[in-house]
């Protein structure tokens, strides 16, 4: 099993617990105008999980053929989903459940399927260093980048724990 999968699995549990320590009132605070609150960051992570789930299914249904995967308007998704007005605990539980499902899906895939380089991204990776010369990536690369993205936003959420009510 790839290292990122074990890390992802562990992150789901620890991040869910960590977010649970942030009070509801703090979860709604925005650090500055135009910046996301913890609720909106978790909502964005739900949207990201949704998009990555969709991308994985597109690749798997493509039977090994080249797949082009696009990005999405993150700010609009956060706004339309109204995460700022969603209960904090409900967001955490939904995020955790969705990521557990996604992790189970990735774990169930044969290594050969995960490592086949048949994906062309029409958006940048968080870790642009992982993009091979030919521009094609594998599901492993896609999901490892998702874990990097997840850790980036979890660090943002952790920074809110220093705020007082």
Keywords:
single chain; 165 residues; mainly alpha; 3-stranded mixed beta sheet; 7 helices; globular
Could you walk me through the main structural features you see in this protein, from its secondary elements to its overall organization?
The chain has 165 residues and is mainly alpha-helical. The chain has seven helices and three strands, in the order αααβαααββα. The protein has helices at residues 3-20, 24-27, 38-61, 74-81, 88-108, 111-115, 139-159, and strands at residues 67-69, 119-121, 136-137. The protein has a three-stranded mixed sheet with strand order 1-2-3. Helix 3 packs parallel to helix 5. It is globular, with a radius of gyration of 16 Å. 26% of the residues are buried. The model has no long low-confidence stretch (mean pLDDT 90).
